[in-house]
Design brief:
The protein is α+β, with helices and mostly antiparallel strands and 250 residues long. Helices cover 42% and strands 12% of the residues. It has a three-stranded antiparallel beta sheet, covered by helices on one side.
Length: 250
């Protein structure tokens, strides 16, 4: 009897040390001990290589680096194409405001190359930018005068260039005899224009307009039909007037 009990205790200890994934109980006869038949849960079989290849997500496409991309710590950053034509246009304006004609013409050359390469914008001569900036400064450069007044002064000049009543180039219009007397002084030829005057000239040369093309007169008295008048307590009244031959501007 003691041997049978010892054998049963040993069997129970063995069962306690084994993982019980599942079992089935067999029928018992009188006087026999319980016997557990263990059925371990089978591990899932790996999927065939072909099946795994079909269900796996496709790999992300590898992006080919482009010119102008920057890579920082192995992470590609989003880049914007550089506007080189705009960059050199700003260089031209900086040179005009500094009176640096050599740097301005070099910036013009580089901008023309950028335009030929597909950059946006229209050609613009540095000499025209500097000359118009000087004229605006000489006539409307005082710090108390407004931006609108400077734009109107420069716009009359460009309206004359486009008009059949006046010369066809900016230089000829500015230096036309009896028109802009400020250009006759020695100071005008070496005048370094203020940046706000350069900005006004640049905006106008790029096509900005605030009046009609027939406004070709500016004076401190009425000269033709009045379009707009600018009143200033120091400068007095400045009249911007229309041409007498409006049919030329229809």
């Amino acid at each position: 009897m003691m041997k049978k009990q010892s054998w049963m205790v040993a069997a129970l200890c063995l069962l306690m040390t084994m993982p019980l994934h599942g079992f089935a109980e067999q029928s018992l006869l009188p006087g026999e001990m319980h016997v557990l038949v263990l059925h371990p849960t089978p591990e899932p079989e790996p999927a065939p290589e072909e099946t795994r290849a079909e269900t796996a997500p496709p790999p992300a496409p590898t992006r080919v680096p482009e010119v102008g991309d920057f890579v920082f710590l192995d992470h590609r950053t989003q880049t914007t194409p550089l506007d080189m034509a705009g960059y050199y246009l700003n260089e031209m304006a900086e040179a005009a405001a500094a009176g640096d004609e050599q740097a301005g013409r070099e910036a013009e050359r580089c901008r023309d190359a950028a335009l030929r390469a597909g950059g946006g914008g229209e050609p613009l001569r540095f000499d025209d930018l500097l000359l118009l900036s000087r004229l605006i400064d000489a006539m409307a450069g005082s710090d108390w005068l407004t931006e609108d007044f400077r734009l109107c002064v420069g716009e009359v000049v460009l309206n004359r260039v486009a008009s059949p009543e006046f010369p066809n180039t900016l230089r000829e219009v500015v230096y036309q005899r009896g028109q802009y007397t400020v250009t006759q002084s020695a100071r005008f030829a070496s005048l370094i224009p203020r940046r706000e005057c350069v900005d006004a000239a640049l905006r106008l040369l790029q096509g900005e307009r605030h009046m009609v093309p027939a406004v070709v007169y500016q004076a401190d008295y009425l000269q033709g039909e009045l379009f707009i008048v600018y009143n200033d307590r120091r400068l007095g009244s400045t009249y911007f007037c229309l041409s007498d031959r409006l049919e030329l501007y229809a």
